[in-house]
Design goal:
five-stranded parallel β-sheet, globular, alpha/beta, single chain, two-stranded antiparallel sheet, 8 helices
Length: about 200
């Protein structure tokens, strides 16, 4: 059950992967294939993957390189991973309680998406589930800001584009980095557990 706090919010910001759409298992599969393709010597566990939910892909590779003393190319891994995942988009379903909530709020409050994925991936996943039209083209991705999640930049830009103060926004997120970003932005948040998928 999705628990929305009883508060007069003036805008909603949704994460995409794992929040609006059930794409995380496919993202993990694409990650593993890309890392193997690039000869990454470290074990990329599902637990580690979920712990970095919402973090920009290149930044995850940089963290792994720092941890293991490796030189795996962050851009090549991210680009190949995005290519693999793009082919999986038709398999991506929606996280129904969150998608239904977004549909129910259409026309009542401005809504945006702030995602750690590339814009074409976000648009593809939302389009595949007939959700893209809900967000009036306010799709915020790491390319638009100086710092991705857990920094607040993406959420602050989303609020600005919607013309709403940060403290009047509610963020829906499935990742710790996104919750940290929402808190840093001064926004209330709702955690979307994996059990809702």
């Amino acid at each position: 059950m999705l628990q929305i706090p009883d508060h007069p919010f003036r805008a909603l910001i949704f994460d995409c992967d794992g929040t609006l759409v059930d794409s995380m298992p496919l993202h993990y599969q694409a990650w593993v294939e890309s890392l193997n393709h690039h000869g990454a010597p470290f074990d990329f566990t599902e637990e580690y993957f979920y712990s970095k939910a919402g973090v920009r892909e290149q930044d995850v590779v940089k963290l792994l390189n720092a941890e293991y003393g490796t030189q795996v190319d962050p851009d090549s891994v991210a680009d190949f991973k995005a290519e693999l995942f793009a082919g999986m988009i038709p398999q991506v379903g929606q996280v129904r309680p969150v998608a239904d909530f977004a549909r129910s709020m259409r026309g009542k409050l401005p809504m945006a998406v702030a995602s750690g994925s590339e814009e074409h991936i976000v648009r593809g996943c939302l389009s595949a589930n007939d959700l893209l039209h809900l967000f009036d083209d306010i799709i915020i991705t790491p390319r638009l800001v100086a710092r991705g999640k857990p920094a607040p930049d993406m959420f602050l830009l989303a609020a600005e584009r919607m013309g709403v103060a940060a403290e009047d926004c509610l963020v829906l997120e499935d990742g710790q980095s996104g919750i940290d970003a929402a808190q840093a932005a001064g926004m209330k948040w709702v955690f979307v557990p994996r059990t809702l998928r």
